[in-house]
Amino acid sequence: MFVHPLALCECDEVGPRTRIWAFAHVLAGARIGADCQVGDHAFVEGGAVVGDSVTIKNGVMLWSGVTVEDEVFLGPGAVFTNDASPRAGFRKGPAGWLPTLVRRAATVGANATVLPGLTIGRWAMVGAGGVVTADVADHALVVGNPARQVGWACRCGRALPDDLDCAACPRCYRLTPAGTLEERSSATGNDG
Ligand SMILES: CC(C)(COP(=O)(O)OP(=O)(O)OC[C@H]1O[C@@H](n2cnc3c(N)ncnc32)[C@H](O)[C@@H]1OP(=O)(O)O)[C@@H](O)C(=O)NCCC(=O)NCCS
Ligand SMILES: [Zn+2]
Predict the structure, then answer these.
(1) Distance from C-alpha of 164 to C-alpha of 100, rounded to nearest angstrom
(2) How far is CA 14 from the centre of its chain?
(3) How far is the CA of 151 from the centre of ligand 1 (A)?
(4) Is ligand 1 within 6 A of the CB of residue 110?
(5) 69-109 pLDDT, tens per residue?
(6) What is the distance in A from the centroid of ligand 2 to the CA of 165?
(7) CA 80, CA 153: separation in Å to the nearest integer?
(8) Which of 2, 50, 85, 173 could pair with 164 in a Cys bridge, judged by C-beta atoms 3.0 to 4.6 Å apart?
(9) In angstroms, what is the span from residue 148 Cα to ligand 1's centroid?
(10) For residue 129, which atom of ligand 1 is closest to its CA?
(11) Are residues 23 and 60 in contact, defined by beta-carbon separation less than 8 angstroms?
(12) pLDDT tens digits, residue range 5-31?
């Protein structure tokens, strides 16, 4: 683990090889896995849980109740929330906070806001500036305020064309009868 001399890391649960850069603040009670990057001015509150190989770009805010699975990318300025109806004079405490789950390898674009109590699916892609007000399906590409699904994202991050064969990597997908996206072949093997 590397903590820049100008970072404030009060947390003793940071995994190996994770790097915490200048002016980031990680509170006691947070958990951060191995091989993560925590950029300048990021804030990770106690109770936030971050998996392995997660990129937390500059200025990201992660509050108690937010869980981020392995390989997630959080773009600069992405903001999470845990209180749907905050009032300074009516504090709810942890029992009133709503949890958020960002599933494996999802991306949250720069300056996006994720409202409380939601799940962002595996390999989902939230466009820059999106305001996420509902759960996001695995591989869904969502943009705007409120964020609406406009397509599907490949594991590699590229938006998929209409035929769902990625133009940037060998992966191909199909829609299941349930309306979810399923990978149907991969020349690079299946890594889970
Ligand atoms: C959402 C995103 C993944 C779409 O990628 P894409 O499919 O290649 O997008 P395109 O540039 O082809 O644009 C497709 C359409 O979506 C619109 N669009 C693109 N990004 C958008 C966004 N973030 N919010 C709203 N609309 C967006 C475009 O204006 C375009 O609209 P049009 O068809 O009416 O002209 C991408 O634009 C994005 O926001 N990526 C995240 C970048 C980021 O935050 N990086 C952080 C690390 S630095
Ligand atoms: Zn691809």
Answers:
(1) 29
(2) 18
(3) 11
(4) yes
(5) 999 999 999 999 999 999 999 999 889 999 999 999 999 99
(6) 8
(7) 22
(8) 173
(9) 12
(10) 23
(11) no
(12) 999 999 999 999 999 999 999 999 999
* Residue positions counted in the chain: 192
159-162 contacts, C-beta under 8 A, 24 or more apart:
159/125
N-term to C-term CA, the chain: 27
Residue 112 CB–ligand 1 contact under 6 Å = no
Q: Tell if the pTM clears 0.85, that is, is over it.
A: yes
pLDDT of amino acid 50: 98
Which residue type occupies 18?
Answer: T
Atom 20 of ligand 1 has which residue's CA nearest to it?
A: 127
Tokens in use for 60? 């990201």
User: How does DSSP classify residue 1?
Assistant: -
Average model confidence (pLDDT) across the chain: 95
Indicate whether residue 65 lines ligand 1 (CB < 6 A). Answer: no
Residue environment code for 2-37, b if the CB has 16+ CB neighbours within 10 A, otherwise e:
ebeeebebebeebbeebbbbebbbbbeebbbbebbb
Q: Identify whether the C-beta of residue 75 lies closer than 8 Å to the C-beta of residue 57.
A: yes
